[in-house]
Amino acid sequence: MSVMLDKGDGRPVVSVTDARVSFGAVKALDGVTLEIGAGECIGLVGHNGAGKSTIVNVINGGLAPHQGAIQYGHGSGGHSINAARDAGIRCVFQELSLCPNLTIVENTRVMHRSLKGWGWRKRGAALIESKLQEIFPGHSIDCHDAVGSLTIAERQMVEIAITFCEIGSPVRLVILDEPTSSLDTRLAEQLLAYVERFVRDGGSILFISHILGEILSVSSRIVVMKDGRVVSQRPAEEFSEHGLIEAMGSVVKSREARTNVQKTSTASVLAAPPVRGRGLPFQAMKGEIVGFAGLGGHGQTDMLVGLFESRTGNWLRAGNPEVAFVAGDRAVNGTFALWSILRNLSIGILPDLSRLQTLDFTREEALGQTWKDRIGIRTPDMNNPILSLSGGNQQKVLFARALASRAPVVLMDDPMRGVDFGTKQEVYAILRREADAGRTFVWYSTEMDEVCLCDRVYVFNIGMIVAELTGDDVTEENILSASFQEAA
Ligand SMILES: Nc1ncnc2c1ncn2[C@@H]1O[C@H](COP(=O)(O)OP(=O)(O)OP(=O)(O)O)[C@@H](O)[C@H]1O
User: Which of 429, 433, 434 has its CA nearest to residue 410?
Assistant: First the structure.
């Protein structure tokens, strides 16, 4: 149960005035003023690197702006992580922050220090279990499991549930930084319904997302950021999807349509038998974009990893890879956290950039410049650390790593996590061009719009492929119906 908060005192939960933050030459915040009142759901949108996570860190007390003022409506005053917590402000970060070696209950205790004393484990388990049930009814997460054993979607669910738990002090404002990026349609809908209930009861939400449909449906007010500034803020009903895209500085293009031309290629480049002898087999043809759909955690990632491992065991052929992989869980198996942006990109094709077994730095620099321009990696210098990039820009580097390789097949595990609208359109166009030139893509996505761009789609349910849809049959209705049908 959530606590009904007093909406009536009129104090904003937080006011930020003229906040400025710079990282070297990059002005991450260039004079941002923002106020969040009780019972408001603010949608925050902007391109990758617009400054959204930076304003979150300022509100959350983790980052002191170089100029400007932050005032909390409740609590003990001042500006720090503790002051923000006292004021009832909580945050679910884009880069999930749970400790993988601890159980869910132990993580709950790490986040809520007042959960202590005799029997804390039992009380913690009851609290987190009921919050998970309240937000994601029907979930199958065991609170005594170690976080490291969970899928990325389950980690996202757990972090959200822990954040909303009321232990000790009331929760007044929850900042959700791309909370649905790993959730499938059903889980995302459950979360949006919970957010609406929370706001109706007087709580406040700052909701950041690149999925404009959900921003429009859940927000009362929408704030648009561009290059460290707020460029527009209005009641949600005054925005349309086109209006939002234009305010962000992206160009509204007609959707990159599926060709609907039946692929004539009969050259199978990748195949797998039915999983454990059940369901349908998998096959991908030269030049096809094959989608994996279905509710999250139903075997899509396992199949992608299996396909990757089946084609990457031969080290003698490492210079001539058969497949490339774009990881969705970038922090765990995508980025090399201590390396530069450039090295994170070039690692995929070092043999192509080398002469006489020695890396040619000029060619490596040229590769970096090409992909920086082609996919819009926002950084003043590709030699900066990868972690200096915003989340979406890190994901672009992983894309570039795979696309820059000569691998004829690219496997993609929900790869658009955190990528902004404009870049997504660019990437869709690149995928289509490369497929037309003969490259094959196998693409698992939790976003229905993306699945519907594929030439052919396999729907997963209970660990196996239960349906194969082609051409005009690739529709949201058919995908959902196969996702929920009773598997034989
Ligand atoms: N620790 C850091 N060191 C250097 N630059 C940084 C650091 N953190 C953020 N930046 C830069 O500040 C800018 C704003 O980043 P921020 O993470 O706030 O963007 P964002 O709007 O959240 O993007 P995304 O949608 O990709 O998450 C970016 O150009 C980013 O590269």
Answer: 434
**Would you tell me how many other CB atoms lie within 10 Å of the CB of residue 358?**
8
CB distance 391 to ligand 1 below 6 Å: yes
Buried b (16+ CB within 10 A) or exposed e, 231-260: ebbeebeebeeebbbebbebeeeeebebee
Does the residue 263 lie in any domain? no
Residue 367 inside a domain? The answer is no
Indicate whether 211 and 307 sit together in one domain. Answer: no
Last residue of a domain, one of 202, 217, 248: 248
- The domain boundary, picked from 215, 248, 281, lies at 248
Please indicate, yes or no, whether residues 291 and 426 belong to a single structural domain of this protein: yes
Indicate the pairing of strand 456-461 with strand 464-470. antiparallel
ipTM of the shown complex: 0.96
Q: Could you tell me if the CB of 392 is within 6 A of ligand 1?
A: yes
Residues 285-307 as b/e (b if ≥16 CB within 10 A, e otherwise) read: bbbbbbbbbbbbbbbbbebbeeb
pLDDT tens, 260-275? 444 556 678 888 888 8
**Binding site membership of 422 for ligand 1 (Cβ less than 6 Å):** no
Quick check: pTM over 0.80?
no
Closest-CA residue, ligand 1 atom 17, reads 390
Tell whether ligand 1 has an atom less than 6 A from the beta carbon of residue 28.
Answer: yes
pLDDT digits 0-9 by tens, 19-46: 999 988 788 899 999 999 999 999 999 8
Ligand 1 centroid distance, CA of 159 (Å) = 22
